């Protein structure tokens, strides 16, 4: 059984405005996300797609984009990457939060099964 079979794997998915895509990718990759262990030693691996994010900031919000009470639509990128190890995924999420321009970045973490 290889290292992927023994170490927990996670899928990190997040959404970021196109203006901050490279900054956020650099942050999560520096934290160890996007690495496929094995003979190929691949790093900085991810999948991206462009779409439109929508939100309405509520009272008390300090939006990076848009205005409180008004509906905003922003071109965003969905980024998906593999993260190997629970400590690494926690570090990658913290790095994402620091690099992301939104006060509440949208992200998801899924634990993956090994078959």
List the helices and strands and how they pair.
Elements: H1 3-6, E1 9-17, H2 21-30, E2 47-55, E3 72-84, H3 86-99, E4 106-112
Antiparallel strand pairs: 1-3, 1-4, 2-3
Structure overview:
The protein has 115 residues and is α+β, with helices and mostly antiparallel strands. It has one domain (16-112): Alpha-Beta Plaits (2-Layer Sandwich), CATH 3.30.70.120. The chain is built from three helices and four strands; from the N terminus they run H-E-H-E-E-H-E. A four-stranded antiparallel β-sheet has the order 2-3-1-4. Helix 2 runs antiparallel to helix 3 (86-99).
The beta-strand count equals: 4
- Order of secondary-structure elements: HEHEEHE
Helicity range? 10-25%
Instruction: State the major sheet.
Output: 4 strands, antiparallel
| Relative strand content | 25-35%
Outline the low-pLDDT stretches: none
Which architecture name does CATH use? Answer: 2-Layer Sandwich
> N-to-C terminal Cα separation, in Å?
11 Å
CATH class: Alpha Beta
CATH fold-level name: Alpha-Beta Plaits
Q: Name the structural class.
A: alpha+beta
State the domain count: 1
Rg over CA atoms: 16 Å
**Number of helix segments?**
3
- Choose one word for the global shape: elongated
Arrangement of strands in the largest sheet:
2-3-1-4
């Amino acid at each position: 059984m290889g290292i992927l079979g023994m170490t927990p794997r996670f899928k990190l998915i997040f959404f970021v405005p196109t203006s901050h895509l490279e900054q956020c990718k650099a942050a999560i990759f520096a934290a160890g996300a996007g690495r496929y262990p094995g003979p190929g030693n691949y790093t900085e691996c991810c999948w991206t797609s462009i779409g439109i994010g929508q939100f309405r900031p509520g009272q008390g919000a300090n939006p990076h984009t848009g205005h409180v009470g008004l509906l905003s639509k922003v071109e965003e990128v969905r980024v998906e990457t593999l993260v190997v190890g629970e400590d690494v995924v926690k570090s990658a999420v913290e790095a994402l939060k620091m690099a992301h321009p939104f006060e509440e970045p949208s992200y998801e973490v899924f634990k993956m099964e090994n078959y």
